[in-house]
């Protein structure tokens, strides 16, 4: 490039005065500088390497390419290196191995694109992708942790939620992620919208941390069925629910001990309480409104997860078990970044996500399952919370 530029400059008319030469040189420099400012113009250089270019480049470019801040990235490399989860090879350092993985899940890039970008063979790219996937997934026990039984600050510090939900430890919900499956399995993975998907069950805290993740279920499965399968199988290691504590669940799940659902047949979503019908008309509507306001944190978490790792928005052409593991790894990285980064750009904007931007929830639970799991204690608890909440509401309007 430099030689071509020199040659082209030599072709300029020798009679150009000094000012014209200076202007031409400045214009050429400016053109080359602006084309390197965006991630799309980052060219893989054989001399310095794509990783070196990004590592030494602007922080915003690094963030865009690898979906996290530089310091958070380096801390993760240190963890993987010190614990022996990954090893430097003769041609690919751990930093580049992780970079390959993050570039794929952060942009849903094909193997061929990554080959050209990092100057490695398809086999090398696949091998390091799978090695990093396995390593990050192995961190799940450390970064997907059970919350403390104490009342979450989000509840404790809000009169609309405290003391009514003081025993709530988190929220459970589901999300359909596009799936690539063999033809023989497509009928099972086709959800109610006609899209091939895997049904992912997750639990999270009110600070957007995933507690539990269970991906891989076929898209046709109801959320209540997936939750029942988790609770019936001790090998799934669902966090033990302390006595008297519970999770909030949406309208697609049964109201039972340890899981408080909204009232069926009563308006629920926050947007249903806007306009002329803003105020709740009874205890059940008030309960549902506050339940929805509090429990939408699970959908916010899913939205942040998909925004950071767009591979979850499309059906990647990997084996089903790899697609499942990618979801787990993405949740581990989500939690890791939330803990390690003080000013992550996505978590900083989390509160801007509104219910209107979130996907529709399954509001048709398996009624046979609901009947078989109904427990009087759970219904009594929900009724008592609603009654106390309504009593305070009609006497203290400032709480709305």
Automatic annotation (TrEMBL):
Q: Which residues form the DDE Tnp4 domain?
A: 173-335
Tell me the InterPro entries matching this sequence: DUF8040 (IPR058353), HARBI1-like (IPR045249), HARBI1_dom (IPR027806)
Which keywords does this Swiss-Prot/TrEMBL entry list? Hydrolase, Metal-binding, Nuclease, Nucleus
Cite the GO molecular-function annotations of the record.
Answer: hydrolase activity; metal ion binding; nuclease activity
Give the main localization category: nucleus
Annotated DUF8040 domain residues: 47-137
Family matches, as Pfam families? DDE_Tnp_4 (PF13359), DUF8040 (PF26138)
Q: Which residues form a coiled coil?
A: none
* CC cofactor: a divalent metal cation
> Could you state one GO cellular component term attached to this entry?
nucleus
Q: Where in the cell is it found?
A: Nucleus
Give the UniProt family note.
Answer: Belongs to the HARBI1 family.
Protein name, UniProt field: Uncharacterized protein LOC110770301 isoform X1
| Source organism of this protein record | Prunus avium
């Amino acid at each position: 490039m430099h030689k071509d530029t020199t040659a082209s400059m030599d072709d300029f008319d020798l009679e150009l005065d000094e000012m014209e030469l200076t202007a031409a040189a400045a214009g050429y420099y400016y053109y080359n500088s602006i084309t390197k400012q965006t991630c799309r113009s980052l060219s893989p250089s054989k001399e310095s390497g794509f990783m070196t270019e990004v590592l030494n480049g602007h922080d915003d470019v690094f963030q865009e390419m690898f979906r996290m801040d530089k310091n958070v990235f380096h801390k993760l490399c240190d963890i993987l290196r010190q614990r022996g989860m990954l090893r430097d090879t003769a041609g690919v350092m751990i930093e580049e191995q992780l970079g390959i993985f993050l570039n794929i899940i952060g942009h849903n890039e094909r193997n061929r694109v990554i080959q050209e970008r990092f100057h490695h063979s398809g086999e090398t790219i696949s091998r390091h992708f799978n090695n990093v996937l396995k390593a990050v997934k192995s961190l799940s026990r450390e970064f997907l942790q059970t919350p403390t039984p104490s009342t979450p600050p989000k509840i404790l510090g809000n009169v609309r939620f405290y003391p009514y939900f003081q025993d709530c430890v988190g929220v459970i919900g589901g999300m359909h992620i596009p799936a690539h499956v063999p033809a023989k399995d497509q009928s099972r993975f086709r959800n109610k919208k006609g899209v091939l998907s895997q049904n992912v069950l997750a639990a999270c805290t009110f600070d957007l941390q995933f507690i539990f993740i269970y991906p891989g279920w076929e898209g046709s499965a109801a959320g209540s069925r997936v939750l029942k399968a988790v609770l019936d199988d001790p090998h799934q290691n669902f966090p033990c629910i302390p006595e008297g504590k519970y999770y909030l669940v949406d309208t697609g799940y049964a109201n039972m001990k340890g899981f408080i659902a909204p009232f069926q047949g009563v308006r629920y979503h926050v947007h249903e309480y806007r306009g002329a019908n803003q105020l709740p008309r009874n205890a059940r509507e008030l309960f549902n409104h506050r339940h929805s306001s509090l429990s939408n944190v699970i959908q916010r978490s899913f939205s942040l997860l998909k925004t950071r790792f767009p591979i979850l928005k499309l059906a990647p052409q990997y084996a089903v078990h790899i697609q499942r593991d990618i979801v787990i790894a993405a949740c581990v990285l989500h939690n890791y970044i939330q803990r390690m980064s003080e000013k992550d750009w996505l978590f900083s904007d989390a509160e801007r996500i509104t219910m209107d931007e979130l996907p529709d929830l399954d509001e048709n639970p398996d009624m046979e399952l609901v009947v078989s799991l109904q427990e009087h204690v759970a219904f009594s608890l929900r009724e008592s919370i609603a009654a106390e909440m309504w009593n305070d509401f009609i006497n203290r309007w400032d709480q709305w």
